[in-house]
Amino acid sequence: MRIRDELRQIAKKQILKVQLEQQKSFNKFRKDVTKYRLGDLVAIKRTQFLPTSKLSRKFLGPYRIISREGQNRYKVLKVGAHEGPINTYTATDFMKPWRQPSSSDEDEEDSHNLPEGEDVIQKGENVGLEISPTEGT
Fold this sequence. Notes:
This protein is an alpha+beta fold and 137 residues long. Among the domains are: 1-30; 41-102, SH3 type barrels, CATH 2.30.30. The protein is built from two helices and five strands, in the order αβββββα. It has helices spanning 2-27, 103-111, and strands spanning 41-45, 59-69, 73-78, 87-91, 95-97. The chain is flat and about 85 Å long.
């Protein structure tokens, strides 16, 4: 009987050790719950991708929070005319605060991070390249 009790204690310790390791690996990529208020504008993560939507935005929005369901789920309502469901429930893991796109963001996207001093070639602009005939023709 004494040996059996010792084996049980060893097994319990091993089980607790493995459970802690599994908990660490599970929580490794989890983020803290963000609390939102009613009326906040948020973007929700696109969860359904079609083969033709590989260039689509990863987040849809804006959506307005209309109610809270439990600890980290919210009911949201679409604001404006854009792609996505009219109203839906979503978890805070799939939400982020809505950031209104500004014109400076669009300018940055268009510049493609060119080094300073490089000129951007406009569509239809002649860049002055001369094509010389190849030898033997």
